[in-house]
Design a protein that fits this description.
Blueprint: E1 15-22, E2 30-33, E3 35-39, E4 42-46, E5 56-65, E6 68-77, H1 86-115
Antiparallel strand pairs: 1-2, 1-5, 3-4, 5-6
């Protein structure tokens, strides 16, 4: 997502490119052009990059427009893709099940304690 600088505007001819290369240097840098996604009230660019191995990669972001050229780089660890937004639900399910069983046991114990006769000591 792109935000305009304070008091400025996003240039209409803004283009993004992402270059990726394994940190090991086993492959040369390959660049991918980002495409503009139409969003309500937001400027968002989208690019899909295929990684062939789970390792550290150097990511090189290049911005170009009539206002100028800029670039930055970072190192990221590529991990296998998961289920997306469903990952949280999938991995939280065992904890939710344990919590449900604990709560159910607590209610049964409370019910059993209420049904048990109480002894009064004098």
């Amino acid at each position: 997502m792109v935000d305009a600088p304070p008091g400025g505007a996003i240039p209409k001819d803004l283009h993004f490119e992402i270059g990726v290369q394994p940190v090991s240097g086993r492959l040369p840098e390959k660049r991918y052009a980002a495409r503009l996604d139409k969003m309500r009230g937001q400027v968002q660019y989208y690019v899909e990059v295929p990684f062939d191995a789970q390792e550290l990669w150097r990511v090189h972001l290049l911005l170009d427009s009539s206002a100028g050229h800029s670039e930055t780089a970072a190192t990221v660890e590529v991990t296998p893709s998961g289920l997306g937004r469903w990952d949280l639900l999938w991995y939280a399910a065992p904890f939710a099940a344990i919590g449900f069983l604990w709560f159910r046991g607590l209610l049964r114990r409370r019910k059993r304690d209420r049904a048990a006769p109480r002894l009064i000591h004098l």
